Amino acid sequence: MVQLSQNMLGSARPNRMPIGRALLSVSDKTGLVELARELHSLGIVLVSTGGTAKAIAEAGLPVTAVDALTGFPEMLDGRVKTLHPAVHGGLLARRDLPAHLAQLQQAGIATIDLLVVNLYPFRETLHKPGVGYQEVVENIDIGGPAMLRAAAKNHDAVTVVVEPSDYASLVQELRTHGSALSFATRQRLAAKAFAHTAAYDGAIANFLTALPEPDAQTLNATANTIEGQDPASASGLPAIYSLQVIRRQAMRYGENPHQAAAFYTDPNAQLGCLGGYIQRQGKELSFNNVADADAAWSCVRSFEGPACVIVKHANPCGVALGATALEAYQRAFKTDPTSAFGGILAFNTEVDEACAQAIGQQFAEVIIAPSFSPAALTVFGAKQNLRLLEVPLGRADAISSGLDIKRVSGGLLLQTPDRNTLAAQDLRCVTLKQPTPAQLQDLLFAWKVATWVKSNAIVFCADGMTMGVGAGQMSRLDSARIASIKAQHAQLSLVGTVVASDAFFPFRDGLDVVADAGAVAVVQPGGSVRDDEVIAAANERGLAMVFTGMRHFRH
Prior knowledge:
By secondary structure, the chain is an alpha/beta fold. It is built from 22 helices and 23 strands.
């Protein structure tokens, strides 16, 4: 964290600065006319460019075109219009230096006190279906970032606005204080402007540095088949990766009480990701709450039909399908009632009153669902500390978009997300015994669960319900034993169950443990040098075994 010295903080800054002239040039015209009307009513002179000037003029408001200010017409299809001393001199001149003001007067340049700019829609263009490479490049803004940086640098005197959401508070302060804005406002908005241009440039760098070496084929391809929504789809990950996240919540502490922490969200995340939650009730989320909630939500969204996932320490300890949210919860809870105490519960369907009544019998930290019925909210209202999070389901692939990032000392590990799209036809049976159709469905269910269990992972399942979970062990053999022991403690029989292993069995001993416990079918990636030995063991024990050709390590 940066420690600010008194010299860095500086002496007293000029406080309220009057706004006499405003330059507006926006791609997103949300609230533009209303803002222009308010500024005009305060006697502020409006200057604008292109389509922005046209929108203001069509609203019946006086506006000066920027080329009248510069004395030079727009050129190169609008690529050059604001890159001129009449604009940048007006933005950058220090009002406390007589020499600066004298130079402006000599050149006939008026100061610009308010700049309202948002940039060409680069990200939006990049993700348009079938968009061409040249169209993406044309949506790299040049004049906009230059003006934003100039105004933000000179925030001692100039106010810069990049987001329509700031228009209302801006107008309110102008009306309250005689068309003048405080230094605190100018500084806050300048910080947002620099963050805005940094994120914009970062998105461009991510796109360009992920492109393959150009050839005739790639130059003729659409931009989003080259890169688009999957930054590693062509030549690999970006050579330079830029990420900007926004602090949503300061936390009392981190993973442990002696660690400081905050929760940051990705403004570009798709609908359906945990970061877009709405908290309906309960205490403030802790660091561990958010981490566990993400594991639970990511897992439950991978299922179709009502499902419940219970997570403890980032591992699913119970997962089940059901005809209703209540049935899914009751079945998930049976897997490991001990670990479920103080757990995180996630549902992919609305939580109703019956389900809320049942959950009320246990202690839970967080419940996540797309919605809660009014009656359920009334039931949960008796437990005011219980945190309820509403998260829209969004697109099925929302969580698996973007890049997965892990921090290491001195750097980051980046990878494409672990997408689990396996279907029954993708499974390859390698044993004499074939799984039944019902067993195939349970194998696919177990495989989905194993995706979200820390390695080494062994998951027993039956009839759309986890029966025993072994997670995070150094030995796959130990994970198999632990999963069996947990089932015994929960008084669940493993006879007739299926088993998923997130990676191959390196020896037959792990397979023997699950067979001894009563499993009848196994799904695993395969790929071990001892596959033949393990297959022979499965045939010997009368197991059906299928290979996926895909593993799901999760560290």
